[in-house]
Amino acid sequence: MSTLKKIKILFFVLVLPTFFISCKKEVAPEAKPLEVSIVKVLQQDVRLESEFTGQTFGQSDIQINPRVDGVIESLDFKEGGLVTKGQLLYTIDALPFQEKVHQAEANLAEMQARLAKTKSDYDMMVPLAKMNAVSQRELIAAKSAYNAASASIKAATANLENSKIELGYCRIVAPISGLIGISKVRVGDYVRPGATSVLNTVSDLADVRVRFTMSEQEYLRIFREITKKDSSLKGAGKSISLLLSDGSVYPETGKISFADRQIDPTTGAVTFEAAFANPDQLIRPGQYVKVLVVTDVRKNALIIPQRSVIEMQGIFQVYVLDNSNKVELKMVQIGPSYKDSYLVTDGLTANDKIALGGTSLLKSGSVITPKMKEWAPGKADN
């Protein structure tokens, strides 16, 4: 056998097994089913809340106005602090009003002296007139002078009382107990009476008022629902909630105090006022809040997490789990939102189980490993 032939035989012996091994198809390991969080469709009564924008007021917000004119001599309170009813707040220069009191006292003393003289003259005239020692004309004149002096006494007394009242107005005291604001005047400022002359405001914050408006259409719908026999909305006005500007829920619930007598013709809305307890004085006048009012109650509503819903061009779908652990994409009709969930009006039943969502690997028809999870609307750990 030639050397070249031997080399060819050796090549086939060494290379062919390697060729067949490399051409052998590798078989991939079987993939494990995807583990997916599954939740049950909940069925329960749901109280749906509507959100309105409101503004807060104190239970009483009393403006402090001067009732006499003069120069502010002192501020006798701590701005932004608590004051009690009758506490001195401001003093106005009292000297001009003290002078009025002295003048009124002197005038009254003069009138009293005149009254004593005219009374003496009249008393003396009466027996003389009976003896015809003086004429009736003189008697009548003496009586008239006495009556005029009596009337002057009343006028002088009233003038003195008024002067004392004005002097008292130089001391401005708190009309109620509450929280006082920042003073709008300082020592040395000249003030005068008037509706626009506001020195400060005191607010009673033990309770607060919240005013909000509701559209005429919403008002009519709620009114008709409440007036129905055995309405599920009866008593809804006694459990009003507040959402503060930082997104937190105010811990106290309130109740509607009243509605305005008319619908505002310029806005087509009616104004409501709700009362809330304010034990920690967290709420101050002038805050803007969200008022949550129960405006609808759905009996035995079906609820699913918002995370479970896939929306595309107005079509809502969820992955529904069957008994063989296979998920199928199913179209549903979505109703109002409730906390972090949706109400479902069609497409699901109370016995259905759906995928919670959160994975893009899920496909319709996929077999999964379900991981059951408890959930409830509004729970942060859902």
From TrEMBL:
Residues 62-200 form the Multidrug resistance protein MdtA-like barrel-sandwich hybrid domain. Signal peptide: none annotated. GO terms for molecular function: transmembrane transporter activity. Residues 102-169 form the Multidrug resistance protein MdtA-like alpha-helical hairpin domain. GO terms for biological process: response to antibiotic. It comes from the Bacteria. InterPro entries: MdtA-like_b-barrel, MdtA-like_BSH, MdtA-like_C, MdtA-like_HH, RND_pump_MFP. GO terms for cellular component: cell envelope; plasma membrane. It is found in: Cell envelope. Its main location: other. Belongs to the membrane fusion protein (MFP) (TC 8.A.1) family. This is Efflux RND transporter periplasmic adaptor subunit. The lineage of its organism: Bacteria, Pseudomonadati, Bacteroidota, Flavobacteriia, Flavobacteriales.
